[in-house]
Design goal:
Elements: E1 2-7, H1 13-22, E2 27-32, H2 44-59, E3 63-68, H3 71-84, E4 89-90, H4 96-105, E5 109-114, H5 116-120, H6 122-131, E6 137-141, H7 143-150, H8 156-166, E7 175-180, H9 189-195, E8 201-204, H10 206-219, E9 230-235, H11 240-254
Parallel strand pairs: 1-2, 1-3, 2-9, 3-4, 5-6, 5-7, 7-8
Helix pairs in contact: 1-10, 1-11, 2-3
Length: about 270
């Protein structure tokens, strides 16, 4: 049986990539809801409907666990998914807590980048209320970055101008950590790092999500310790062109080029 990974588009491939490194004996299914990408600009009701539709299709494909590799989808639909299906379902949220611990030790602030919808959700607001009693976390939406990623747009000049417009007026030296709170954003880690002081640490939720997946699989005696690894890509449109794009994005991360991404790497 496979482990299912789900996102609206290419973003969750950054989480899948981490899982493939971590589980050498597992088979993976990656499903992109290309009919409705991006989620971050939709209403909460629309996203919940799309996620439930996608999950229904994924569950049919012999999966033993499902990773919702999307912060927005997790914040809106994870509880409903867990109440509907009896397989392990792992979600994501912006890695603000570990980032805050690091920044506090450095006497610095935290900057969270995420989609507009994620930042508006009660789940995220509750997280901040729970952990950020000193108001050290600043949150900025980078909604357009999702579309840049979906179009494989890694033009350095375009992206640099975009990022600079988003952090205009901020003293970047006051931050100890930057949270990449959308699974599309790690594709731009290298470009973002160039904009910040070298001491700033970049954190995303991929490693924590994969460790949680491992814990749950071991707890239920569902972890494969032998077998050949495989990865299958599919989407809600079934478009072969998009499947090829997903494979390119995955192999791009496999080569480790996400630190200094060039558009030509994905052509």
């Amino acid at each position: 049986m496979k482990i299912g990974f789900f996102d609206s588009g290419l973003g969750g491939i950054s989480v899948l990539h981490e899982a493939v490194k971590h589980f050498p004996n597992e088979s993976f299914l990656y499903y992109a809801d290309t009919l409705h990408v991006p989620y971050g600009s939709k209403t909460k009701e629309e996203v919940k409907s799309y996620v439930l539709q996608a999950a229904e299709e994924i569950i049919k494909q012999d999966v033993k666990a499902l990773v919702v590799a999307c912060n927005t989808a997790t914040s809106i639909a994870i509880e409903t998914l867990r109440a509907t299906y009896n397989i392990p379902i792992i979600g994501m949220e912006p890695a603000a807590k570990p980032a805050l611990e690091i920044s506090r030790s450095l006497n610095k602030r935290v900057l969270v980048f995420a989609t507009s919808l994620t930042l508006k959700q009660a789940k995220y607001k509750h997280l901040l209320e729970t952990i950020d009693d000193q108001s050290l976390i600043d949150s900025i939406p980078l909604q357009e970055l999702v579309q840049y990623c979906e179009h494989l747009n890694f033009d350095q000049d375009t992206l640099k101008a975009y990022f600079q417009s988003k952090v205009q007026g901020l003293d970047l030296h006051q931050y100890g950590t930057v949270v990449l709170g959308c699974t599309h954003f790690p594709f731009y880690r290298g470009l973002l790092r160039d904009m910040f002081p070298p001491t700033v640490q970049f954190i995303d939720g991929s490693i924590g999500t994969v460790k949680r997946l491992e814990y749950v699989l071991k707890e239920r005696n569902m972890l494969n310790t032998a077998g050949e690894q495989s990865v299958t890509f599919t989407s809600s449109t079934g478009a072969k062109e998009y499947e090829q794009k997903m494979k390119k994005a995955f192999h791009f991360l496999e080569k480790g080029k996400h630190e200094k991404v060039q558009k030509t790497d994905l052509v």
